[in-house]
Amino acid sequence: MPALPALPRPSMLSALLPGSLRQRIGARLNDFRVPSFTVPAPIARIVARLPQQPPTHALTLALNLALGRILPRDALEPLTGRHLQIRVLDAGLRLDFTLAASGFCRAAATARPDLVISATTRDFLALALREEDPDTLFFSRRLRMEGDTELGLLVKNTLDAVDWDALKTKLVGRRSG
Questions:
Q1: CATH for 43-164, options being 1.10.10.10, 3.40.50.1220, 3.30.1330.10, 3.30.1050.10
Q2: pLDDT digits (tens, 9 = 90+) for 59-108
Q3: Which stretch is the leader sequence (predicted)?
């Protein structure tokens, strides 16, 4: 597999936006809560029949952008060559990916995954926005892990180690009191 080209670092949002707009965006991000919703079944049936490569490519692109910046590559080394799958239950998505020497890439959907992480769209969004704790979702059976749970713990602990507040400060800038 060819090496991924180095991506230019995007300008920080805080440098692009005037102070008052940056503060309003920061305030909205602080107050935002993911509403309770489920993807309608007819849409999920359609999405499940569509090729899964485009959303998997979007996921691996986002992970590669984060790799080395907010996701420590050395901590994720045990994921190298392991087949991971994210199932978005209410949307009918199955995203198969792996970590290679060149970064995250799509894994063959025909192979059995080493780790499957399943939840609804709403719960994945709440996790990404740090509104919900993975342990809370896991023990309430809204987040499921199947397969190599040691890999699951590695992923969870790596995400828990990310300083999300520092990242948000970099992106939005400091709010004035």
A1: 3.30.1050.10
A2: 999 888 888 877 888 888 999 999 999 999 999 999 999 999 999 999 98
A3: none
